[in-house]
Design brief:
Layout (H helix, E strand, L loop, with lengths): L5 H27 L3 H13 L8 H27 L4 H7 L6 H18 L4 H11 L6 H15 L16 H22 L9 H24 L5 H18 L3 H14 L2 H6 L1 H7 L9 H18 L4 H6 L2 H15 L5 H18 L4 H15 L8 H18 L2 H6 L3 H5 L4 H18 L6 H10 L1 H4 L12 H15 L7 H16 L6 H20 L14 H14 L6 H17 L3 H17 L4 H16 L6 H16 L4 H11 L14 H26 L6 H16 L6 H16 L7 H19 L2 H8 L4
Length: 790
């Protein structure tokens, strides 16, 4: 066995198969001629091939399976012989004359199987005899396969309850005793393999052993199938003896595999009722055994058992499963000082899953697990290894998935402490998980303490954490993250204005500390949430004295002003200006003229100092005009000042067409339907005339630069404004002025320098059709329009 090359092994296997097949051939001839003597002789020679020590377990298995198939045929022959009058007892004696012990024992097991079936002797006696006899083979590989054969031929002949081989009394314990004895001996042989051969081949031996483990594990499966093994017998005999063997073998591979086998093959209710015994074995295992995986599997099985039916839950309470598991985990972690973080977190994660399944109402248990996890992680710093981080995320996500309510997580005092051990990237990931949970379950966060706790949990998204360079993050991802925070801000709500104001102040504190890059995303939702509160206050009972309450619109507007001011550090003047105008409208609804004026002033300052892009200016001026037109709160002086400014800005826009449109839009500032105080026809006409002059100038510029007249669209737009105010009853807009404008447009369109413009043509035709339609209406309207000729 000095040279163990793959080629040599193939040769030896081929030689073994050849020898086996030759002897099998002669054995078949003897079987066909019912020659018992020759059958035994050739079968013994055939089985002698299994005496080899040259093959690896894998190759030996190939040889064994061929021999196994032949032994099946031999067993059938023995059955036939007994039917023909051959005494089974004599046959049992006869096979023991085989020269070599290994063939002798294989033949003995084969005849023993027939002997049990004949029922000429109690099954328990024959089984006991066979299991004792097999001790004659102490070579690990040969012994394992021999005992595996014994297990295979006897498994359907055990004296079990309800079995045809059941004896008079205590037969189940005989069956259990037989299987346990065979298991114990097989385990000893399997463990002994580890200590054979040179140290340099340790890895190879471990691989070979793992290939053979199922031979040993099958015994536990057979035990679990014995009907007569009730809970008492399992507790008193089976588990005690199996664990004794597992602990005493002091072998890492055997302990890890067999503990897993016990958990997998025996029923869940048995595990639950014998939890203390089973868990008591864990600290006695070798330090190198991967206890975390085995223990986690046990907890996963128990969790699934608890989930299978609510009826089984009282069993868990009765045996105090949580306390026992928690205690066992503590002992295991204590016993293994060098257990990696992933092991610790995996164990607590499995315990948490178990607890959420069995004791969903016991938040103290959940917090206790998180607290124990914090204790074990303390002093370890941030988790470096990605698997550990992933496991912590799973641990923290479990309560969210179970309760579908962030409120529950916020009650867990140790929840944020566990998060502290995550690196910045994973903290963000966890924060996103929390926000998704809130959005999915539409959870409203309803008081400032909860908001404070929540923002502490998601601080990875709302501010730059130490050592976290923003540039590392992809711009698109950053926008997505901040949009999720913006959506979260809309989920903060309380019907009590006082509490809602506290929430707004809490959020303000957090988002203003979040750095300028985040403000354009987080400030607008906070402003609109606060404006919602102001609208609610406006609708509140007027009798509530303002001094009795802290949440007054005035106070909230002061806070809003501070928040919008913070945007100047970004800068995003367009966003800030829109927000000032929104606040001005809300102040208008609250009848707070000074506040509304202040917001307009701020918007105007931004327009003058910050908004320089011509397109942005156009958008901004139309927003200003539109908002100002809807304001009711201003006195004459304030309104004049703001209107004067707006018309001044309009006339100073860069492009003439933009100037023209902004100026004619200003005409609406002097005539508001529902305010009698704002009906100044003179100034409406002034604005429209000014717009006409600008449109004319634009036309001349086009003529000078392009050599052709520009579009007449501006004139048609102004005509529409004339008609609007004409219909509203502005006396200064006369039939003559409308008529002259129609003629001007007609002449322009027919002039030699006119540029064809189908859109303008359609617009003009549509305007003329409207005039005709109004004429045809008859009555006062028809009379009014009658004088206009189209």
């Amino acid at each position: 066995m000095h040279h163990n090359g793959v080629e040599d092994e193939e040769k030896w296997l081929a030689a073994g198969i050849t020898g086996l097949q030759q002897n099998a051939f002669y054995m078949h001839r003897a079987l066909d001629s019912s020659n018992l003597k020759d059958a035994l002789k050739y079968s013994a020679q055939m089985l002698s091939e299994l005496r080899t020590s040259r093959l690896s377990p894998q190759k030996y298995y190939e040889l064994y399976m061929r021999a196994f198939d032949e032994l099946r045929k031999l067993e059938i022959f023995f059955k036939e012989e007994t039917k023909r009058g051959c005494s089974i007892v004599e046959l049992y004696e006869l096979v023991q004359h085989a020269g070599n012990i290994l063939p002798r024992l294989y033949l003995l097991c084969t005849v023993g199987s027939v002997y049990i079936k004949s029922k000429e002797a109690p099954a328990k006696d024959i089984l006991k005899d066979l299991v004792e006899m097999c001790r004659g083979i102490q070579h690990p590989l040969r012994g394992l396969f021999l005992r595996s054969y014994l297990s295979q031929v006897s498994r359907d002949k055990l004296p079990d309850l309800g079995s045809e081989y059941e004896g008079d009394a205590e037969t189940v314990s005989d069956a259990v005793e037989f299987v346990l004895q065979n298991f114990t001996e097989m385990n000893k042989l399997w463990v002994r393999m580890q200590h054979q051969g040179p140290a340099r081949e340790k890895e190879k031996r471990e691989k070979e052993r793992s290939e053979l483990r199922d031979l040993v594990g099958k015994n536990l499966h057979v035990l679990s199938q014995i009907e007569g093994v009730d809970l008492d017998m399992y507790r008193e005999t089976v588990l005690t003896r199996v664990l004794e063997q597992v602990v005493n073998c002091k072998d890492e591979i055997a302990q890890c595999y067999l503990m897993d086998c016990i958990i997998q093959v025996f029923p869940d209710e048995y595990h639950l009722q014998t939890l203390e015994t089973l868990l008591g074995a864990f600290p006695q295992l070798q330090p190198s055994v991967d206890i975390k995986t085995v223990l986690s599997r046990l907890m996963d099985r128990l969790s699934n058992y608890a989930a299978s039916s609510a009826e089984v839950l009282p069993e868990f309470f009765q045996v105090e499963a949580f306390a026992k598991l928690s205690n066992a985990i503590g002992k295991v972690i204590e016993a293994q000082d060098d257990m990696p973080v992933i092991g610790v977190v995996t164990l607590y994660s499995s315990l948490l899953t178990f607890t959420l399944q069995v004791h969903p109402d016991r938040l103290d248990f959940v917090d206790q697990i998180l607290g124990a996890c914090v204790t074990k992680l303390s002093g370890k710093g941030k988790l470096e290894d990605s698997k550990s981080r992933k496991q912590v995320v799973a641990l923290l996500s479990a309560p969210l998935q179970k309760y579908n309510d962030i409120d529950i997580a916020l009650k867990l005092s140790n929840y944020p402490h566990v998060m502290e051990y995550l690196d910045n990237g994973t903290k963000k990931e966890m924060a996103s998980v929390i926000i998704q949970s809130i959005m999915k379950n539409k959870t409203l966060i309803s008081n400032s303490e909860k908001v404070e706790a929540l923002f502490e949990l998601i601080k990875g998204l709302i501010k730059d954490l130490e050592g976290n360079l923003q540039s590392e993050l992809d711009e698109e991802d950053f926008h997505e993250e901040q949009n999720s925070v913006a959506r979260l801000i809309q989920m903060l709500h309380n019907d009590d204005p006082e509490e809602m104001l506290k929430i707004i102040c809490t959020v303000k504190k957090h988002i203003l500390a979040g750095g300028p890059k985040r403000l354009p995303f987080t400030v607008p939702p906070l402003i609109f949430n606060a404006l919602k509160l102001i609208r609610r206050l406006q609708n509140r009972d007027e009798n509530v004295a303002e001094e009795d309450t802290a949440a007054t619109p005035k106070k909230i507007f002061q806070i809003l002003n501070q928040i919008i001011e913070a945007l100047s550090s970004v800068p995003v003047p367009e966003v800030a200006m829109r927000l000032y105008l929104q606040c001005a409208e809300a102040a208008d609804d609250s009848d707070l003229e000074p506040v509304a004026y202040e917001f307009f002033t701020q918007a105007y300052l931004l327009y003058e100092e910050e908004i320089s892009d011509s397109k942005a200016q156009v958008t901004a001026i139309h927003l200003i005009i539109g908002t100002l037109q809807r304001m009711h709160v201003f006195g004459v002086e304030n309104r004049d000042t703001l209107t004067h400014k707006a018309t001044g800005y309009s006339a100073k826009l860069l492009k003439k067409p933009d100037q023209c449109r902004a100026v004619y839009a200003c005409s609406h500032l002097f005539w508001v339907d529902d305010q009698d105080s704002i009906k100044d026809g003179e100034r409406v006409l002034l604005c429209l005339k000014r717009a006409l002059r600008i449109a004319n100038a634009a036309q001349q510029m086009a003529n000078a630069t392009r050599g052709s007249g520009g579009s007449v669209a501006l004139f048609i737009e102004i005509l529409n404004k004339y008609l609007y105010f004409f219909e509203k009853g502005v006396t200064q807009i006369t039939v003559a002025s409308v008529q002259s404008l129609i003629e001007l447009i007609t002449n322009e369109m027919q002039g030699e320098n006119a540029t064809p413009d189908p859109t303008a043509d359609a617009f003009f035709a549509s305007t003329l059709r409207f005039i005709q339609f109004q004429k045809d209406k008859g009555g006062a309207v028809g009379e009014k329009y009658e004088a206009i000729k189209v």
